[in-house]
């Protein structure tokens, strides 16, 4: 089982340098001291273009590019495209966009494992010549059967002792398309009784007639990941090949391939713990299912943990990099609370977001003693956290909207907002008192009648009388209509998986993960809202325009995150 990370530690701002003081940097320091790779540090980020990148990949990106930057080294972007049936150029493009958006630059070093298919073939021939690989005619099932188990050694394939000549001939004919898919494979000749199953003569080439997104139909044999990866690293001059823990057991094979081919100065594989977040899923298979079966509105649905989803939701690259630094790099698996990610964006937006007033669930308020045609403008600060952000003029008039939840006809004790007979402060404007309510035929309150105190202009108390509540408002005649989309966790279970109680992970989808509010009222300054900006809707949360559906004349805002940092509170308790 995985442990939860130490939340206190993550909150500590001192941790922003964490990426650069961890066990991986320790290994690099030692290599530098011993001159293993000279003073060179060269990493790579190796996504398989079979889906969009998610926040877990962001951790790997920040680590690989970050470590390279920190050590004045280089980081390549390499598409690990050895599995043609699932890969697609749509994914290649989205991956490039996402890495760039996160703020990283691979310079002119964008590669594809498929660039090396010719060389990989030659390496395989080389292995055969060294007597270290053979063509095997066992079926996939037989290979599995022969492999043995964790407690039982495997047995040798009857084809294991083919001569070099026969192997060379058969392998070439595999390449030339003489044999059907799946009928033969090339296997490394290692040790069928190795305690490590990966070392029991693993398959390194298979026959597969599938059109590759780059090499088309040139090849009908494809190298396996465990063979292609160390050699791609080697060919690119990678020094430190950083990957996630599930590859730990593959490291002996990684090293074997490089050693048997007698390659000099081989790269070093280093494993770290992958990022897990609660209330979401990160496996590409699951994300693809959510997209394909219409549970979400594409890979960039703002509820998805994908980089494109987070971007559309309104996350900034800075907040994601901050998150990746805070969670650090460890050797043991853990689950990070989704609240940590929200904490990071909230901190970032608190500094940069412009404040505006909007009313999401409007209730009409008529101020009976306010002159019919009068309009006043109040100066309201754009961001109390940033004095240079200045102020803006916000119009006020006789009819305004307030939030429905800011009025109660039968309030409980300690309700400090508006009630019949009660007084409240309208932010930066006036004190108002509610005198009566108007209801529709269903008994629902549709309008309040209030009076204002002209002496409380600017929201200052004229005579020292106290008003406990301050609420936000929007002038009705000046308001614009907007649509607002509120998001919640996509799943109701902390760890939505397929096997608990025989359920599928999709059974745990949160039906209330998206709430669409139409006819919200906003101050007119939002007419000039910019896709690049983020806004704090006063008392409501942080918002941004939806890049997919918002257009002039019909503005749609996504809630990035609410204002309340429940997570920070819990972690301090
Ligand atoms: P799949 O879900 O198909 O197994 P993957 O998540 O391994 O795919 P890749 O495209 O192979 O996706 O990953 C690219 C790189 O990102 C790899 O080095 C991988 O180790 C790393 N990576 C993937 N998921 C995470 C994660 N959750 N945390 C940290 N790194 C990750
Ligand atoms: Mg992978």
Shape: elongated
CATH class of the largest domain: Alpha Beta
Mean pLDDT: 94
What amount of the residues lies in strands? 15-25%
Q: Do you know the CATH topology of the largest domain?
A: Rossmann fold
In the predicted model, the low-confidence regions spanning at least 5 consecutive residues are: 1-17, 569-573
Biggest beta sheet summary: 7 strands, mixed
Name the CATH superfamily classification of the largest domain.
Answer: HUPs
| Structural class by helix and strand composition | alpha/beta
- Rg over alpha carbons: 31 Å
Mind telling me which CATH architecture of the largest domain this is?
3-Layer(aba) Sandwich
How many domains? The number is: 3
Write down how many β-strands occur, each being a DSSP E stretch of 2 or more residues: 29
Through-space gap between termini: 25 Å
Query: What compounds sit in this structure?
Result: adenosine-5'-triphosphate, magnesium ion
Which features does this protein show?
seven-stranded mixed sheet; 26% helix; single chain; binds adenosine-5'-triphosphate; 29 strands; 3 domains; 573 residues; Ribosomal Protein L25, Chain P; disordered C terminus; Gln/Glu-tRNA_Ligase; elongated
Describe this entry's structure for a reader.
Belongs to the class-I aminoacyl-tRNA synthetase family. One of its GO terms (biological process) is glutamyl-tRNA aminoacylation. The structure is a single chain. The chain has 573 residues and is an alpha/beta fold. 26% of the residues lie in helices and 24% in strands. It has three domains: 7-115 and 227-345, HUPs (Rossmann fold), CATH 3.40.50.620; 118-225, Glutamyl-tRNA Synthetase, Domain 3 (Glutamyl-tRNA Synthetase, domain 3, Alpha-Beta Complex); 358-479, Beta Barrel (Ribosomal Protein L25, Chain P). The strands form seven sheets. A seven-stranded mixed sheet has the order 14-27-28-29-25-26-15, with helices on one face. A seven-stranded mixed sheet has the order 23-20-21-22-16-19-24, with no helix packed on it. Strand 27 and strand 28 form a beta hairpin. Helix 3 (55-70) crosses helix 12, helix 8 crosses helix 9 (251-260) and helix 12 (317-327) crosses helix 13 (338-352). The two termini are 25 Å apart. Residues 1-17 and 569-573 have low confidence and may be disordered. The structure holds adenosine-5'-triphosphate and magnesium ion (MG). Adenosine-5'-triphosphate is lined by residues 46-48, 56-57, 59-60, 80, 243-244, 274-275, 282-284.
């Amino acid at each position: 089982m995985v442990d939860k990370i130490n939340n206190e530690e993550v909150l500590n701002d001192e941790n922003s340098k964490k990426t650069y003081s961890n066990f991986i940097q320790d290994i690099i320091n030692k290599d530098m001291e011993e001159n293993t790779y000279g003073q060179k540090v060269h990493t790579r980020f190796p996504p398989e273009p079979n889906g969009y990148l998610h926040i877990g990949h962001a951790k790997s990106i920040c680590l690989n590019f970050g470590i390279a930057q920190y050590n004045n080294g280089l980081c390549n972007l390499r598409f690990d495209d050895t599995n043609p049936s699932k890969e697609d150029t749509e994914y290649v493009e989205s991956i490039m966009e996402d890495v760039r958006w996160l703020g990283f630059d691979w310079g002119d070093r964008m590669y594809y494992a498929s660039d090396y298919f010719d060389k990989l073939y030659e390496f395989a021939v080389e292995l055969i010549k060294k007597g270290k690989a053979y063509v095997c005619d066992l079926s996939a099932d037989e290979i599995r059967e022969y492999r043995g188990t964790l407690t039982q050694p495997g047995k040798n394939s009857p084809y294991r002792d083919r001569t070099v000549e026969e192997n060379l001939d058969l392998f070439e004919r595999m390449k030339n398309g003489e044999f059907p898919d799946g009928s033969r494979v090339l296997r490394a000749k290692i040790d069928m009784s190795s305690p490590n199953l990966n070392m029991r003569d693993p398959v390194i080439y298979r026959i597969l007639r599938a059109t590759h997104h780059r090499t088309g139909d040139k090849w009908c044999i494809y190298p396996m990941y465990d063979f292609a990866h160390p050699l791609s690293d080697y060919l690119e001059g990678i020094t430190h090949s950083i990957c996630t823990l599930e590859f730990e057991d593959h490291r002996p094979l990684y090293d074997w391939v490089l050693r048997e081919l007698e390659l000099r100065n081989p790269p070093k594989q280093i494993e770290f713990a992958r990022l897990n977040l609660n209330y979401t899923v990160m496996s590409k298979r699951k994300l693809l299912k959510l997209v394909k079966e219409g549970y979400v509105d594409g890979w960039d649905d703002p509820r998805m943990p994908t980089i494109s989803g987070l971007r559309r939701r309104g996350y900034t690259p800075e907040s994601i990099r901050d998150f990746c630094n805070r969670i650090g790099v460890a050797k043991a698996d853990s689950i990070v609370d989704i609240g940590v990610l929200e904490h990071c964006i909230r901190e970032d937006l608190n500094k940069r977001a412009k404040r505006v007033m909007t009313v999401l669930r409007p209730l009409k308020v008529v101020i009976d003693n306010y002159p019919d045609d009068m309009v006043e403008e109040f100066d309201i600060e754009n961001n109390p956290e940033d004095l240079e952000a200045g102020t803006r003029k916000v119009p006020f008039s006789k009819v305004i909207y307030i939030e429905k939840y800011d009025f109660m006809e039968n309030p409980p004790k300690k309700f400090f907002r508006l009630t019949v007979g009660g007084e409240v402060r309208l932010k930066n404007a006036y004190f108002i008192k509610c005198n009566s309510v108007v209801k529709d035929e269903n008994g629902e309150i549709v309008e309040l009648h209030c009076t204002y105190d002209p002496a409380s202009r600017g929201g200052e108390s004229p005579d020292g009388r106290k008003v406990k509540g301050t609420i936000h408002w929007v002038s009705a005649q000046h308001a614009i209509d907007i649509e607002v989309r509120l998001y919640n966790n996509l799943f109701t279970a902390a760890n939505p998986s397929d096997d608990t109680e025989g359920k599928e992970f999709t059974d745990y989808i949160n039906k209330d993960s998206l709430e669409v509010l139409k006819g919200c009222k906003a101050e007119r300054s939002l007419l000039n809202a910019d896709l690049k900006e983020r806004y704090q809707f006063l008392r409501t949360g942080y918002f941004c325009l939806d890049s997919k559906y918002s257009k002039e004349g019909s503005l749609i805002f996504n809630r990035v995150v609410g204002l309340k940092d429940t997570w920070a509170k819990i972690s301090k308790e």
